[in-house]
Amino acid sequence: MLDFFHPRNTTRFVDTALLMLRIFVPLLLIPHGYDKLLSFLEGAVNFPDPLHIGVRFSHALAVLGEVVAPLFIILGLFTRIAAVIEMGHFLVVAFLMHANEPLADKEHALLYLIPYTVILLTGAGRYSLDALFFKK
Question: 18 with 125: CB under 8 angstroms?
């Protein structure tokens, strides 16, 4: 038991920690995206367009960032690509959607950037479809 707390004992638990990060962070995000997915499928036209690329395309990118990419991250499939999508999504939310608002209003988006940056840097880990499909 004390071996668990030894500072050199890290590699054994990294893949488990990555799996937990990949599952629980996106699960917090998907309920927000689900509402956006439903409104997108219903053809809603009153969605913000911070990139000035058209309301429907902005709405589709939000669904990509809050539903599709998180599902790929949970599965550990094309994980680094999905992490880049997530990072881009939250940079837009923090610095375009909430550009003129105080830091407290940007806080959630900035906090989501942290785990997705970790996932980008580390990859999905051993317990992922990436590891299964892309074995050397």
Answer: yes
Buried b / exposed e along 30-56 (16+ C-beta atoms within 10 A): eeebeebbebbeeeeeebeeeeeeeee
End-to-end CA distance of the chain: 34
Residue 15, Cα to own-chain centre: how many angstroms?
18
Residues 78-89: what's their mean pLDDT?
98
Q: Taking a C-beta distance cutoff of 8 angstroms, is the pair 48, 38 a contact?
A: no
**112: pLDDT strictly greater than 80:** yes
Q: What's the pLDDT tens digit per position in 6-25?
A: 777 667 788 999 999 999 99
Contact 74, 23 (CB under 8 A): yes
pLDDT at residue 9, as a whole number? 67
